[in-house]
Specification:
The complex is a heterodimer of chains A (209) and B (172). Chain A has 209 residues and is α+β, with helices and mostly antiparallel strands. Chain A contains seven helices and ten strands. Chain A is 32% helix and 36% strand. Chain A is globular, with a radius of gyration of 18 Å. In chain B, strands 3-2-1-4 form a four-stranded mixed beta sheet. Chain B has a three-stranded antiparallel beta sheet with strand order 6-5-7, with no helix packed on it. With 172 residues, chain B is α+β, with helices and mostly antiparallel strands. In chain B, helix 2 packs antiparallel against helix 3. The longest helix of chain B is centred in the middle third of the chain and has 17 residues. Classes of the chains: A alpha+beta (209), B alpha+beta (172).
C-alpha cells in the first residue's frame, strides 16, 4: 500500500525542558501527517494519521528517515501529496520542516499529543526491576501472559521521566526494528480535527517535485 | 571519534544483454579508510591515513540505490565523510551523487576511471580460483551466475557481501 504523506512537523524539546535528558542541542520528534482512505459503512473517507518517530537528536532522526522512509520513496511506495518523490527531494522537505520546529506547548496547543507505547515480552523481563511498573495499572494499556504494553501520554515533561524510567527498566530501545516482541512506538494523536493554520501548513508542506 | 572516509568511487556496469538477466547490474567499489588509522612505513607511506578498496554495493540499480541510501544515513552524523576528514556531505547530496554515478556509469567519474581496466581483484567464498587479478567482464558474468549470488539477486538484495575487492593504491 502506498503512503501518501501530506505534511511533516518537527517538535523540539529543549535541553532545559528535558531535565536530565540533557542534550545541548535539544531533542526532536519527527511526525508525519499521512492521508489514507478508510472504507467504512458510509463509504470511503479520507483520514489523517499522525505518526511519530523516536525522540532523538536531529542527526539520528535524519539517519532514521534515510533507513526507512527514503527507502520507501526510492521504491515508489511513499508519495508526497499524491506524487512520487525521490529520496533526496524528500529529505529537502524535511530540512524545511527542521528549519521551523514546534515547541511541545505549540504542538499541544494545535491538538497534537504524542503518545508513547512501550511493549515488552514478559519472559524476558527482569523480575525485580519491572515489578513496580507492572503494578502501575493506570499506565498499562494491555497485558496478557505473553507481553505487556505501557501507554504514556507525553503531554507533560514529567511524563518523559516516567517514560524514560519504564524504557530503561524494561531494556527497550527506540527503533528496535529487529525484535518485534520488544518495541517502542510513538503514535501521535491529534485531539482536535483541525489542521494546522493554513499559512504554517503551506510553509512546511511546500513540495518541489 | 573516528569516521570513515571515502576517497574514490568507481562503478562497473554489467549490461543485461551480457548476463542474460532482466536488468543491468552495477558494482560500486570505493577506496575507504578510517580517519584514525595511519600507515607506517618509509617515504610517503609514513603517516598517511590508511585506505583500501571495498565493494560498497552490488546488484540491480534498485538494490544498489537502496544500499547507498542506507549508507547515506551515516552522512548526517558525520560517521562517513567524502574525500577527507572534514568532507561532510549531506545525505541528500550523497544520494543525488550516487544516482548520477550510476547514470554516468564508469566513464566520467571521479578521476579513478583510468584504473578501471584490470583493477578488480575478486575473491568469492572458499573458491580459490576466484582469487583473480585483472578480472574481465566474462569473469564477472560467470560469477553472477553462481547459485548463491543468483539467489540473492533474485531476492533483490545487494550482492556486495559476496565479493572482496582490491584495487590500485591511488595516492591522492
Amino acid at each position: 500500500m502506498k503512503i501518501n504523506e501530506i505534511g511533516r512537523y518537527v517538535i523540539q524539546f529543549s535541553a532545559g525542558e528535558l531535565g536530565h535528558y540533557l542534550r545541548k542541542k535539544g531533542m526532536y520528534m519527527f511526525t508525519h501527517d499521512e492521508l489514507f482512505v478508510a472504507v467504512e459503512q458510509q463509504g470511503a473517507q479520507s483520514v489523517h494519521r499522525l505518526t511519530g518517530d523516536r525522540l532523538a537528536m536531529q542527526y539520528a532522526n535524519v539517519g532514521h528517515l534515510c533507513g526507512t522512509r527514503c527507502i520507501e520513496a526510492e521504491r515508489g511506495n511513499l508519495q508526497v501529496n499524491g506524487k512520487a518523490i525521490s529520496p533526496e527531494k524528500y529529505l529537502k522537505l524535511w530540512r524545511l520542516a527542521m528549519a521551523k520546529p514546534f515547541a511541545l506547548e505549540d504542538a499541544l496547543g494545535l491538538g497534537i499529543t504524542p503518545v508513547l507505547h512501550i511493549r515488552k515480552c514478559k519472559p524476558s523481563m527482569g523480575k525485580n526491576a519491572t515489578e513496580n511498573w507492572l503494578r502501575a495499572e493506570h499506565l498499562i494499556e494491555s497485558s496478557d501472559e505473553i507481553q505487556t504494553t505501557w501507554r504514556i501520554v507525553l503531554d507533560d515533561f514529567a511524563n518523559y521521566d516516567i517514560a524514560n524510567s519504564i524504557n530503561s527498566t524494561v531494556c527497550c530501545e527506540y527503533g528496535d526494528e529487529f525484535d518485534n516482541s520488544n518495541k517502542v512506538s510513538l503514535i501521535v494523536s491529534r485531539t482536535s480535527g483541525s489542521l494546522f493554520p493554513p499559512s504554517r501548513q503551506m510553509d512546511l508542506c511546500e513540495v518541489t517535485t | 571519534m573516528s569516521s570513515e572516509i571515502i576517497y574514490h568511487r568507481v562503478v562497473r556496469r554489467l549490461p543485461a544483454k551480457d548476463t542474460g538477466l532482466a536488468e543491468d547490474l552495477f558494482l560500486v567499489a570505493v577506496q575507504i579508510g578510517s580517519s584514525n588509522c595511519y600507515e607506517y612505513g618509509f617515504g610517503n607511506r609514513n603517516g598517511r591515513r590508511s585506505r583500501s578498496w571495498s565493494m560498497l554495493a552490488a546488484g540491480t540499480r534498485q538494490a544498489v540505490m537502496e544500499r547507498l541510501i542506507r549508507i547515506a544515513a551515516d552522512m548526517e552524523s558525520g560517521m562517513v565523510k567524502i574525500g577527507h576528514a572534514s568532507g561532510h556531505v549531506k545525505p541528500e547530496s550523497f544520494i543525488a551523487g550516487a544516482r548520477m554515478m550510476l547514470k554516468a556509469d564508469v566513464s566520467k567519474y571521479d578521476g579513478a576511471h583510468s584504473y578501471i581496466d584490470g583493477w578488480f581483484s575478486l575473491s568469492f567464498y572458499d573458491k580459490p580460483y576466484w582469487d583473480k587479478d585483472a578480472i574481465n567482464t566474462s569473469d564477472l558474468i560467470e560469477w553472477v551466475k553462481l547459485p548463491l549470488v543468483a539467489k540473492e539477486l533474485e531476492d533483490g538484495g545487494s550482492i556486495n557481501t559476496f565479493i572482496k575487492v582490491s584495487g590500485p593504491d591511488i595516492r591522492r
